[in-house]
């Protein structure tokens, strides 16, 4: 039997946002590998082994998955959202690069998913309708001054900013520091959206002007979206305003 | 009968990459609206009206869709990829903001799709595994100096760059100019990927170092992806190298 590895984006949560391609690979896999809460989103199948691991063990998890595929298993590594965005795909290729040469010959494919960023944007309106960037606020794997430098560059050049990993128990102050920095660069009325667990039962969306953006509105499941000077709100009666960034832009 | 409007991302092409949520809305719609080649991707249904328009008429198309929804139709506006990314969602909300007040009370929702950027990244490996930005190279709706300013900011701060709308008949020189600019800011060996029509029969992927990146490799269906200094290639025998950007970064 010839093994393979599929790195699968499960989408933001609702199975109606999971692609048929992902479903087919999940059904064909002998082994399911991933962070516990993500593996739990996949319906259990008899005879499919489930390997649930802790959040911080991406590289070990990747090596384990590769070793299983090498020995003939059909392995599905699952991530929330899109597996290529601050998720497992990069860890798998890092393991391939530094692993035994045979891993380079394995049948590996990445199956894209609906990212947290686009699921959040869809709920809000069209805030990512023009130039934007995605930035992880985690300083576990990069120095904090680099985060600040990227925030400064992005805000200064007029990109809408999507922040991944805004906060965790081990990183409580970073989001507040980011807001502080951005208040010096963008108007106080710049819209900030906190989109938590989009498409899951506990979904919650909060909008604030940057001047009043409160880091306590974010947790580990939150995507924080910061508008550019061009991003606009459309007031609606009895509903949250639509947020969108026009397709046209003048020099900021 | 009460109308609605759904702004739907069809994904990059292959229906295995279209979400069940999108399929359900397409099946329930009375009217289908979009650029001809995108509407053509949706299987025809008897009794569903198809309104195919030209590429450049986003705002007219949006107004037409809103007016139909207002008069009771169930309208699906379709885009390729994700409808929120350089696509129809922003045009619809622009039309809502400047249209009759009743349009703000309409039942509107955006249904996210697999974006061209993530479909391309999945084929390549994990080039968007760390901080990245997405930028439209079209200067139809923004001044070219602003494009250059954003490219400079993004490359200087170490973002991987995804270029949408790299070239068209009316915009033949912009991509070459962008490469020229980036050659002054990034190492010549920085990987550049040209991902055309990913998941469609005519799919084509080309990799070049920035020093040799040839704008002629791109057409209207191409997503151009430019690595950061951290992006790496993994050589494979008899296959295109994997491209990935590690999760960890040091200050550039």
TrEMBL record, chains A, B:
The keyword Iron does not apply. One of its GO terms (biological process) is cobalamin biosynthetic process. SUPFAM superfamilies: Tetrapyrrole methylase. The keyword Secreted does not apply. CDD domains: Precorrin_3B_C17_MT (cd11646). Its EC number is 2.1.1.131. One of its GO terms (molecular function) is precorrin-3B C17-methyltransferase activity. Residues 7-213 form the Tetrapyrrole methylase domain. NCBIfam families: cobJ_cbiH. This is Precorrin-3B C(17)-methyltransferase. Keywords: Cobalamin biosynthesis, Methyltransferase, S-adenosyl-L-methionine, Transferase. It comes from the Bacteria. InterPro entries: 4pyrrol_Mease, 4pyrrol_Methylase_sf, 4pyrrole_Mease_sub1, 4pyrrole_Mease_sub2, Cbl_synth_CobJ/CibH_dom, Precorrin_MeTrfase. It is an enzyme of class 2 (transferase). Pathway: Cofactor biosynthesis; adenosylcobalamin biosynthesis.
């Amino acid at each position: 039997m010839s093994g393979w590895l599929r790195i699968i984006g499960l989408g933001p949560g609702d199975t109606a946002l999971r692609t048929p391609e992902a479903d087919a690979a999940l059904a064909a896999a002998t082994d399911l590998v991933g962070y516990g809460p993500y593996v739990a989103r996949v319906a259990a199948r008899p005879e499919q082994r489930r390997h649930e691991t802790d959040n911080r063990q991406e590289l070990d998890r990747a090596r384990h998955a590769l070793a299983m595929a090498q020995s003939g298993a059909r392995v599905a590594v699952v991530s929330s959202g899109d597996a290529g965005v601050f998720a497992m795909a990069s860890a798998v290729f890092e393991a391939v690069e530094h692993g035994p040469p045979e891993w380079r010959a394995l049948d590996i494919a990445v199956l894209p998913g609906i990212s947290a960023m686009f699921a959040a944007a869809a709920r809000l309106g069209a805030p990512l309708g023009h130039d934007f960037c995605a930035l992880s606020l985690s300083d576990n794997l990069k120095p904090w001054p680099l985060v600040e430098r990227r925030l400064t560059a992005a805000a200064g050049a007029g990109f809408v900013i999507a922040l991944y990993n805004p906060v965790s128990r081990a990183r409580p102050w970073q989001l507040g520091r980011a807001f502080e920095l951005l208040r010096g660069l963008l108007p106080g009325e710049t819209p900030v959206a906190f989109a938590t667990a989009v498409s899951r039962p506990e979904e919650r969306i909060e909008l604030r002007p940057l001047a009043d953006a409160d880091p306590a509105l974010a947790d580990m499941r939150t995507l924080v979206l910061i508008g550019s000077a061009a991003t606009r709100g459309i007031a609606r009666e009895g509903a949250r305003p639509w947020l969108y960034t026009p397709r046209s832009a003048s020099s900021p």
